[in-house]
Amino acid sequence: MHSPLYGNRLEEAIADVHRALQEVAPELPLVIKLHPADRRKSDYDPVVRAYPKIIWVGSGDVCKILMWSRLVITVNSTVGIEGLIFGKPVVVLGRSFYGLDGLVHPVRARAELPEVLRTASNNPLDARLVEQYLLFLYFIALTRGHWRDYSPESLRRVATRIISIIEDTAASPGVETANPSP
Fold first, then answer.
1. Burial 52-78 (b: 16+ CB within 10 A, else e)
2. Distance (Å, rounded) from C-alpha 37 to C-alpha 76?
3. One digit per residue, pLDDT tens: the chain, 182 residues?
4. Per DSSP, what are the bridge partners of residue 130?
5. Up-side HSE of residue 125: CA atoms within 13 Å toward CB?
6. What is the DSSP string of the chain?
7. Which residues contact 75 (CB under 8 A, 6 or more apart)?
8. For a 10 Å CB count at each end of the chain, is N or C smaller?
9. Signed CA dihedral, 87, 29, 54, 123: sign only
10. Alpha carbon 147 to chain centroid distance?
11. In degrees, to the nearest 5, what angle opens at C-alpha 157 toward C-alphas 35 and 127?
12. In 3D, which of 92, 88, 126 has the Cα closest to residue 112?
């Protein structure tokens, strides 16, 4: 849904990534971890059968996968941010709030996927830029709350954040704030 390249056709994204990875680094295994909400919505059995060498992960700790990964490919998942935390190059196939050139490797056309994978796998991250971005997220952009946490403290932090965004916007009419949506 968040990919202008694939829409909600995850099977096409998987086919393109598999093909591109075979071209760029055939020795690397492709591990696919489906989004937790996706597991109940779609029947991926035909895709699983079509690609028997892909390692399919239904649940579990994504950190263990990231620890052993050479790079991360995602549409717009927060797994991309986790990949940056683990020092992994991140290839983005969709719209994400962290899809910034230099920070990650956005794919803007399906035909450029092999070259983007090659670039991502052969070039180290800009560790300083990653650190600056993660600090920006932690101290400025994100709110310490959880959408399932209705505790008074969590609600207070979220309410305070919303009020500060409104006040920033009111103080600077016509100017967009640098605060992305959490």
1. eebeeeeeeebeebbeebebbbbbbbe
2. 14
3. 578 888 888 889 999 999 999 999 999 999 998 877 766 666 778 888 999 999 988 777 889 999 999 999 998 888 999 999 999 999 999 998 899 999 999 999 999 999 999 999 999 899 999 999 999 998 888 887 777 888 898 888 888 888 988 988 888 766 554 545 44
4. none
5. 23
6. ---TTTTT-HHHHHHHHHHHHHHH-TTSPPEEE--TTGGGT---HHHHHH-TTSEEE-SS-HHHHHHH-S-EEESS-THHHHHHHTT--EEE-S--TT--BTTBEE--SGGGHHHHHHHHHHS---HHHHHHHHHHIIIII--S--TT---HHHHHHHHHHHHHHHHHHHHSTT---S----
7. 2, 3, 6, 13, 92, 93, 94, 96
8. N
9. positive
10. 19
11. 55
12. 92
135 Rama class: left (phi>0) / alpha (psi -120 to 50) / beta: alpha
Question: What are 128's two structure tokens?
Answer: 């300083």
Determine if the pTM surpasses 0.85.
Answer: no
Nearest to 72 by CA among 38, 110, 103: 103
User: What's the one-letter identity of residue 90?
Assistant: V
Q: Which amino acid is at 181?
A: S
